[in-house]
Specification:
64 residues; two-stranded antiparallel sheet
Length: 64
């Protein structure tokens, strides 16, 4: 079973955030993403497993 990747738009929809907020979080290193091709205009791809990582991280922060 391979890794499933989401576009920024798909990821934003699932976590109920705007596309701009997701891109900002990627640039700040809060969401891990990659660009499968070279170039500044290449679209970001986010592993679906990142959804779970963010969920677990938010749960840990809420316990503090």
């Amino acid at each position: 079973m391979g890794i499933t990747f989401l576009t920024v738009e798909e990821f934003a929809e699932r976590i109920k955030m705007s596309r701009a907020t997701v891109i900002r979080a990627i640039k700040l290193g809060k969401i891990f993403a990659s660009r499968p091709s070279m170039g500044i205009r290449a679209p970001y791809r986010i592993a679906e497993s990142e959804l779970e990582r963010l969920h677990l991280q938010s749960m840990c922060e809420n316990k503090k």
